[in-house]
Amino acid sequence: ALTVKWQTEMELRFARKLRLLGRSDWDGFFESVEKGDHAPILGVDSIERLRMTDVPAKLIESGVRFDLVIIDEAHKLRNAGNRTHTLGTALADATDALVLLTATPVNLRNRDLYTLLGLLDEGRFNDPALFELESIPNACINRAAALLLDPDATPMSIRDMLLTLSESDFGATVLDRPDARQLLSLLNTESRLTAAQTGLAR
Fold first, then answer.
1. 3-state SS, one letter per residue, for 47-97
2. Does the pLDDT value for residue 91 go beyond 90?
3. Is there a contact between 113 and 120 (Cβ–Cβ < 8 Å)?
4. In whole angstroms, what separates CA 25 from the centre of its chain?
5. Residues 6+ apart with CB under 8 A from 159
6. What is the pLDDT at residue 195?
7. In b/e form, how buried is each residue of 98-112, taking b as 16+ CB within 10 angstroms?
8. Which of 119, 125, 138, 177 supports an S-S bond with 92, CB 3.0-4.6 Å?
9. Phi, psi for 60 (deg, rounded to 5)
10. pLDDT tens-digit series, residues 158-199
């Protein structure tokens, strides 16, 4: 199970002994919170199990704070409104630091990523329409990155692809970045050298 793997890896790699949490661990934890003398809870649990319990509600009711919460397979939190996302929201609100781990932050749509980012920074990611506009430059950047790996692509074609960023408001902002200006300058230099070499070859 993934929980056992986390327990093993944390001990082998970081010398952190974490126990596998169960119902009794959480009950004891919340009881100690009510008494005001709770000790830190260090352990690993399954989001599939936790989402079916009253832990999310108790996290909200108790006002407890964690130093750090790590959620593996975080793409399972992408559907806002379901039990798993409700658990993720409760954990995010109860911790000072949140780490989300996933190899597939986008499943079928940008909204998947938007939902996960909202858990990390709700104040920053609170407008899905704005997020869609901010995502527009990504397609152009990805195409330019693909051209960089294409042996038949020319510096001019890569430069021209990047310049299409100017067609969107957020894309124009990307082009104003110092690293983007430096890249365009290099591509312009390469384009001139290529043109000069072509002329000499003729």
1. HHHHCCCCHHHHHHHHCCCECCEEECCHHHHCCCCCHHHHHHHHHHHCECC
2. yes
3. no
4. 30
5. 184, 187, 188, 191
6. 55
7. bebebeebeeeebbb
8. 119
9. -70, -45
10. 999 999 999 888 998 899 999 999 989 988 887 665 654 455
Contact assessment for residue 100 and residue 116, using Cβ atoms and an 8 Å cutoff? yes
Q: 162: which residues sit within 8 A by CB, 6+ positions away?
A: 140, 141, 144, 175, 180, 183, 184, 187
Query: Would you tell me the crossing angle of helices 128-148 and 110-120 to the nearest 10 degrees?
Result: 110
What is d(CA 77, CA 100) in angstroms, rounded to the nearest whole number? 10
* Alpha carbon of residue 39 to chain centroid: 30
- Do 25 and 49 meet the contact criterion of CB atoms below 8 Å apart? no
| pTM for this model (two decimals) | 0.79
Q: Is the pLDDT of residue 38 over 80?
A: no
73 Rama sector, left if φ>0, alpha if ψ -120 to 50, beta otherwise: left
Instruction: Give tens-digit pLDDT for 104-151.
Output: 988 878 899 999 999 999 999 999 999 998 988 998 999 999 998 898
Average pLDDT over residues 74-97: 94
Beta bridge partners of 71: 100
Question: What is the C-alpha separation between 29 and 41, in angstroms, rounded?
Answer: 7
Count of beta carbons in the 10 Å neighbourhood of residue 62: 14
Q: Is the CB of residue 11 less than 8 Å from the CB of residue 23?
A: no
